[in-house]
Target: Protein vreteno-like isoform X2
Amino acid sequence: MPKGTTKQTLWSICSKNGLVKAVRHDNKSGCYFVDFATVVDAETVCQSLENNTLGFQVIVGKKKKTASAPIPPDLATQSTQQENRTCLSSEKLSPHLYAGAQQALDRNFQNGFIFNDDIHTFDLKNKGNTNACIDSEGGHITVPDKVKNSDEGGTHTNEEFTRKKIGFKNIECTLCRHECRLVCRRCRGYDNILGYYCSVECQKRDWEKHRYICGNPRRPLHVDIISHASLNRNVEKQEKSDYSELIKQMPRSGIIVTITAIMKSNVVFIRSKDYDDNENFCKTVNGLQKLGETLKTAIGKPRCGQVFLSKFRDQFYRVMILNHTENEEVHVVYIDYGNVDTLNLKDLYEAPDEYTRIPRYALPVILKDVPNCYMTEEITKIMYSYLNKNVYLKYEQRDLTENGVYMVELIDESMQQNFNAAIKNWAIPREPFNSSEICFKDYLKHVMLPSGDNIELVVMDNSSMHTGVISCTTKPYAVKIQKFKRDIQKYAQNVSTTRYAPQLDELCIAKYNVDGEWYRGCWLGLYGTGEAYIMFIDYNRIERVEVDNIRPYPLQFTYPIYTSDCEIRGLPERCSEMLVEKLKELIPNGTILKCDDVKSYEADKFHIISLPYIIKELKSLNLL
Model:
């Protein structure tokens, strides 16, 4: 290296062409050693720096007394053949033709339109297989499906396809334009193959150009219509549909993608940042904006699966109809991002045919080894910090699920941090290891109910009706409580501790003896031998629970407390048995109350609510 060169400088130079894991300097030999993620990365960087003008020399293998000459691209003794390489297509290498427009688009679009609770169910049908074979000279070659039947008739083995002349019509070698009979193995199965070759030699010579599109052919703006199968169901329960086209569009492992939408703790949408894919995406977006006033408002009732355009913050986007609501609204998915939203019919515009035929750019992936759990505030922060970030995509072909969605790993391009691992730390609950991990009630945030006029509340428990108090939450909060309840069941059933005696005010997981299910609780004290008073904090109900039915509380369960005690204005401090009986009849658990007024006392985590129609009926019965 030239004098004064730092490790950081070398890291930056090499990172332009490959994934660098470490840079080391050996004082004895005076050489710098660069560790790469794969042999492919190492070879790609090596060849890119062979004739560098930066002042340093590249040494391959063991250190030699004199610097090695530039390595010929067709050197037969190379450890990795050129046709086997997979070049990482970093955004840093790509011309930023649309950089400004791209950044503005992502920044504006992602504010809102995030639907974290559900994901579409994808179903794969008619999985196709292609047959790969090895050429006599070691090249990886695949005969495409459309030419598997030769003019000579009969069926041939994979090996025979490399030796018999198959009758290709109007197919020319990508390099020399001679008639050819072979195709690059990674490009197999695509309709617009860009890797036809007459020999392995031509494949080698064309590799410097072909490697940037190998296994990921150019996506034309005008292609055949994809069969967007009907998603005729509501947002939460969509029917399975045929998404086999998604497999063909899946970016290959090792390239850079960007996260476009967060759907669940283990499901995100990604978009390829390969140069050709990103260029086509930007052209599509720019083309939509140029349509402007030529667009016509959609007429009639749209069909499920139909593609339209919609405007958001002065930008047009492609949307697909998922389902209709009872009103003049429809559930849609932004097919180039993955976000789900509800739009009014008047906000839909007819999409020109050329834009309905372009495949979606955003594809769903499942985060490998990450469970599908309730998204706590910690998980949400981690996931949204990666929104619109560039990450490396890593998966294997066997990671394809039955529904046609790949299980993948995503690795931060800049920090080299595993996105999956960061989420798993909070997504998988574990029992406390020591006293420092014990959680008390103040560990959880208490969310107060809204105050004001005409507010709807859900009754969670009415067991304290004799004091004129009920426990309530809002409808959205009640849904949240039901959603994280399933994570509590799974943890309690699998935790190793089978008997637990908490401290005073310590959080725990306790079984309710009426329905036999597990809930969050707070220890209030012992009752006799082997039992304790537990307040179920999501219902504010106090019950006696056997110690055998109590489990320690995990740090990962950071769900806030959404339920608060509410005093009904106009009731006495102590209610008679007849009054309590009538009140429980009028206000059973699960009832939605329409409160004329809600007043909050945040210091006491307490509320006073007005229910004049309840008070009026009680007076008419002479109970007040």
Notes: The longest strand covers residues 315-324. Confidence is low (pLDDT under 50) at residues 63-169, 217-242.
